[in-house]
Amino acid sequence: MKERILAEKKDLELIAEMAVDFARCEGADEVVVKMNKSTGLDVSCRHGELENIDFNKSRSLSVSVLRNHQKGYARTADFSDGAIRETVRAALSIARTTMPDPFAGLPERDEFAWEPEDFDILHPEEPDPDDCLRTAVRLEDLAMSRDPRITDSRGAGVSNHYGMNIMVNSAGFMCSEANSYFSKSVCVMADDSTGRQTGASYTNAVDSRLLLSDDFLARESVREAIECINPQKIPTCTCPVIFRFDCAPEIISPAVGAIFGMNQYYKCSFLQDCRGKQVFPEWFTMSSDPRVRGHISALYCDSEGVATRRCDLFKKGVAVDYLHSCVSARKLGEKTNGHAGGALGIVTLSDERGPKQSYKDLLHSMDKGLVVISTMGQGINTMNGDLSVGVTGFWVENGEIQYPVSGITIAGNLKNMYQGIRGIADDADERQRFRTGSVMIDRMTVAGGE
Fold first, then answer.
1. Which terminus of the chain, N or C, has fewer Cβ atoms within 10 Å?
2. Are 152 and 196 in contact (CB under 8 A)?
3. Confidence class of residue 54 from pLDDT cuts 50, 70 and 90?
4. How far apart are CA 437 and CA 336, in angstroms?
5. 265 close to 275: Cβ distance less than 8 angstroms
């Protein structure tokens, strides 16, 4: 099967090269052709019965042209010669109506990732609906039978996908890769005096052999539901807050968006002009690695073809650099650094003060406060960093979790929160692309329900 996919990818490469050649013949100064094709199967069940089966195939070819610094774009799902020629002409026609952009254009030749790399992300399997359904039913059964307090299920799901992506441009550069993707998930519910509490778990990988076991998923989903039974209210207060590992990315990831070059150029970042300035504590480092072998996010080039590299985004709490595409770099008079299309890969936080601390260590150091395990609503203003979101979690006293809580709103400002980070635990979830352990903030306003 892998050989068939690679042969099909080779055919798409030839089509993309033909489209570039035709666009050049039609008068385009620069051309970028991108093609993608994917095949997948998603199966879900509930109460042991098939709930949904979705077999999908998608494909597209897009053409971006530049003529006299005017840019045009068109896309088609038809890969025939006639349709591709019409798409190229449509892109050129659109280009004639757009304003010239002196910053648009391909990267410099020495910026391209001319040497392709294999990150071992293609391990396809022929999608089998019956096998996927059996797996989903077995997973749901394991979770439902694990604890008598689990009273209902929201279902289980299994996915099997593979696809390919090709980019060819008029500078003679080609980026071509194929990948596979597998996942499993389950969600169960437990009744209590306030209604129902849910618990969910998932796993994903490029190789089905690397998926977490059904037993682990069942155990995690049940634990999440049970530990939130009968939540209590707490009074309004100001206290330390720990964002658990699965929730911490929601408050840390806005810092990454804030240092993208376009946000800096348009002055729509709450960390405006932050390069070289202290954003996080001096012991804090955040790094990005888009070249992790075997991970679905692995890329040897960004969406413009520029070579990617591992880099520190914040070093000792200081913003190292802005994340540039060619356009944002040119607008700011700088050079691209391979981040077009958000090519970040895996983002990791680290505490450079010495021995790592566990989640329990973090609880003990907090002594009394709130642990946040989920948030509700889009309560972050990325222009000024203000945050106000509804949360659920646990109340902590004497360094120990006492009871679950709900009906709470927390408020603060991200810039102050970042400076107020007092610790990061070593419990980062390897399933996430944004890998951070639980993060403790020294003080936040907590609006309780009492």
1. C
2. yes
3. very high
4. 30
5. no
**Each residue of 310-342: b (16+ CB within 10 Å) or e?**
ebebbbebbbbbbbbbbbbbbbeeeebbbbbee
CB burial readout 177-194, b (16+ within 10 A) else e: bbbbbbbbbbbbbbebee
Q: What is the mean pLDDT of residues 55-68?
A: 96
Three-state SS across the chain? Answer: CHHHHHHHHHHHHHHHHHHHHHHHHCCCCEEEEEEEEEEEEEEEEECCEEEEEEEEEEEEEEEEEEECCEEEEEEECCCCHHHHHHHHHHHHHHHCCCCCCCCCCCCCHHHECCCCCCCCCCCCCCCCHHHHHHHHHHHHHHHHCCCCCEEEEEEEEEEEEEEEEEEEECCCCEEEEEEEEEEEEEEEEEEECCEEEEEEEEEEECCHHHCCCHHHHHHHHHHHHHCCCCCECCCCEEEEEEECCCCCHHHHCHHHHHCEHHHHHCCCCCCCCCECCECCCCCEEEEEECCCCCCCCCCCECCCCEECCCEEEEECCEECCCECCHHHHHHCCCCCCCCCCCCCCEEEEEECCCCCECHHHHHHHHCCEEEEEEEECCCECCCCCEEEEEEEEEEEECCEEEEEEEEEEEEEEHHHHHHCEEEEECCCCCCCCEECCCEEEEEEEEECCC
Confidence of residue 344 (pLDDT cuts 50, 70, 90): confident
Q: Which residues contact 405 (CB under 8 A, 6 or more apart)?
A: 231, 232, 233, 234, 370, 392, 393, 394, 395, 448
Q: In sequence order, which residues have a C-beta less than 8 Å from that of residue 106 and are 6 or more positions away?
A: 30, 32, 169, 170, 171, 304, 305, 326
Residue 71 contacts residue 98 (beta carbons within 8 Å): yes
Q: Are strands 237-243 and 369-376 parallel, antiparallel or unpaired?
A: parallel
Hey, what are 227's tokens? 């530990």
Q: How confident is the model at residue 342 (pLDDT cuts 50, 70, 90)?
A: confident
d(CA 9, CA 339): 25
- What's the length of the chain? 450
* pLDDT at 7 exceeding the cut of 90: yes
Residue linked to tokens 């206290």: 239
Binned at pLDDT 50, 70 and 90, residue 360 comes out as very high
Q: What is the pLDDT at residue 449?
A: 66
